[in-house]
Amino acid sequence: MSVPATPRGAAAPPGQPRKAATAAWIGSALEYYDFFIYGSAAALIFPEVFFDESDPATATLLSLATFGVAYAARPIGALFLGHFGDRAGRKKIMVFTLMLMGVSTFLIGCLPTRDQVGGLAPVLLVACRVLQGISAAGEQASANSMTLEHAPPGRRGFFTSFTLSGTQGGQLLATLVFIPVAALPEDQLLSWGWRLPFWLSVGVAVVGYVIRRKLDETPAFAQQAAEEGVAKLPLVILLREHWADVLRVIAGALVASVSTIFTVWALAYATSDAVGMSRTAMLWVGALANVVALAAIPLWATLSDRIGRRPVFLIGAAGSAVTMFLYLWAVSTGSYPLTFLTGIVCFGVVYSAANGVWPAFYGEMFATRVRLSGVAIGTQIGFAAAGFAVTFAAQIAGPGGDDWSAVALFTAALCVPPVVAAVSARETHRVPTELLGERAESGAVRPEKVTA
């Protein structure tokens, strides 16, 4: 591997931190636009298009299960993409994941329905969903590593938060696109209208390639490759030297259950016969919450650069357990003002504390040579559980799908492991980037040169 040497501890070239953050934001927004339009469709459209309409409750359960399938595929994708990202560099993985997401999402918009091909339709849907999951497995980890390793001292929290604010931007865009689609007449919506948001993903591949192909590789990765070579088997090093941090990231990533319950299950519940709220109104709840999150995420991340990652993450994890209960209660009342208010507070403000700081918090636990693998594998295992939280919530809600309090308690329980992970973690916001992942306090020394 030919990589120019970089002086140890050297800063990124002027303009590169901002360029990397911008690429991470736009790329993540476009990628997660694809990912979240599937969530909206799984809650509102797919039960009638791909599953048996004679049993609406089972159709909804199966549709939500396909949402979780991508999360099951993500740990597998993380193993491969993390390995190649720590060997070939962050930039190549960022380009690959975006292209894969764009293609797989476009194909979903082209799928035949159950009425056209019978049981083959949901099989093809699941196959495309698996490809989405593999793509998402490497997207955030590679973008996080790129921004963290380009960030100037003392601002890693702020710059890495662009990945997650981009994710929220993608979710906002997906919601805004679905609002007019959901307002179409029922026959048009179910015949061709639902396909339009998926076809728009053609632009994802084009825009993503243009933005990301011009990025420079990070100074930290270039330095690692030049001085010590890249690890032949990053996973072996990761599990030998960073296994405890991998477990912390897995536990911390369970906080994403708040997002999946809010985005998918609460949407299905609110628009069900049990509550009867309109699709359009509930989509606007998500849209406004994401607008607030776009402002809240960099603010929380900047605060973490001053007071540390742990306290900010704890605010988000513990606070989400409480505010999610309030949000689901508000939905159960059918009150639009209460639902809008609690949705914005829960998802837009409180959850953003954990969501905005985890890219730096997790990435700083690992050394450069295994950072992408560590973040990818740890987050994707945790996210897999978060993805299937929607399916479990649908079962916990009972035959009528209206036991919101049980779902709220379930979500709160999933916030406990993230709290434990944060309490047990080291504070790293003041550690120089080149020293991240080193364990001076435990007597560990920097590993010997790894053959390229």
Structural commentary:
The protein has 452 residues and is mainly α. The chain folds into two domains: 17-217, MFS general substrate transporter like domains (Growth Hormone, Chain: A), CATH 1.20.1250; 234-424, Up-down Bundle (Growth Hormone, Chain: A), CATH 1.20.1250. The chain is 75% helix and 0% strand. It contains 20 helices and no strands. Helix 6 (120-150) runs antiparallel to helix 7 (156-182) and helix 6 (120-150) crosses helix 18 (371-396). The chain is globular, with a radius of gyration of 21 Å. The protein starts with 15 loop residues before the first helix and ends in a 28-residue tail after the last helix. Mean pLDDT is 84; it is low at 1-9 and 440-452.
